[in-house]
């Protein structure tokens, strides 16, 4: 039932626009596998083989460490309403920090120049395989809205508190790998 494609089609892009969340998966040969849920508003389709998403401050910074060490990443979407479908984007990712020209350019071109409080970096995935599958096992769920928790946490910490958190909690992965996060 799975189908494979070399690039994102317009049908794939339309499916992405209708989702409320996505999941990222990454690992190195010797690390734990990290899987994280993300809100769809953070994601942008750049072209048929590239997607980016804003990586906001969270409890860990595993994906950045895995991108620095290995680069393999998968992004998965699954329809929780409407027709069933799962779509995975396989490829090589990288973390683009505040200190890069690419970060500034992408923020300007794809996020109207607005850097939400708590944004650590932009993650970019260069897609080498798109795979869809039936999604028959995914339950139907009703979307109620985004949680305010992350915004509240960022607001309560403030810019300096967030930078202190990055320094204390986001410099290495849970397996001791450097994340490459620049806090200057």
Number of domains: 1
| Biggest sheet statistics | 8 strands, antiparallel
Compute the separation of the termini in Å.
48 Å
Corresponding CATH superfamily: Electron Transport, Fmn-binding Protein, Chain A
CATH architecture designation: Roll
Report the uncertain regions. Answer: none
Derived structural class: alpha+beta
The count of DSSP E runs of length 2 or more, i.e. the number of strands, is: 8
The CATH class designation is Mainly Beta
Shape: globular
Query: SSE string, helix = H, strand = E?
Result: EHEEEEHEEHEH
- Whole-angstrom Rg: 16 Å
Count of helix runs: 4
CATH names the topology as Pnp Oxidase, Chain A
Structure write-up:
The protein has a single domain, classed as Electron Transport, Fmn-binding Protein, Chain A (Pnp Oxidase, Chain A), CATH 2.30.110. The longest helix has 21 residues, at 149-169. It has 184 residues and is α+β, with helices and mostly antiparallel strands. Strands 1, 2, 3, 4, 5, 6, 7 and 8 form an eight-stranded antiparallel beta sheet that branches. Helices cover 26% and strands 33% of the residues. It starts with a strand and ends in a 15-residue tail after the last helix. The chain has helices at 10-17, 62-69, 101-110, 149-169; strands at 3-5, 21-26, 34-39, 43-47, 50-56, 72-78, 86-97, 119-133. It is built from four helices and eight strands, in the order βαββββαββαβα. The model has no long low-confidence stretch (mean pLDDT 96).
């Amino acid at each position: 039932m799975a189908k494979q494609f070399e690039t994102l089609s317009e049908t794939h892009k339309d499916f992405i626009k209708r989702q409320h969340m996505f999941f990222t998966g990454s690992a190195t040969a010797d690390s734990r596998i990290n899987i994280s849920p993300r809100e769809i508003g953070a994601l942008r389709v750049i072209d048929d083989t590239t997607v980016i998403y804003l990586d906001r401050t969270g409890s860990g910074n595993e994906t950045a460490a895995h991108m620095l060490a290995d680069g393999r990443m998968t992004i998965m979407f699954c329809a929780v309403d409407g027709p069933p479908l799962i779509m995975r984007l396989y490829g090589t990712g990288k973390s683009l920090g505040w200190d890069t020209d690419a970060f500034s350019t992408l923020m300007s071109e794809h996020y109207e120049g607005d850097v939400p409080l708590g944004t650590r970096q932009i993650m970019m995935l260069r897609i080498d395989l798109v795979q869809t599958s039936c999604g028959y096992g995914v339950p139907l769920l009703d979307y109620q809205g985004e949680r305010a928790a992350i915004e509240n946490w960022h607001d309560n910490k403030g810019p300096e508190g967030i930078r202190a958190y990055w320094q204390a909690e986001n410099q290495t992965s849970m397996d001791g790998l450097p994340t490459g996060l620049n806090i200057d």
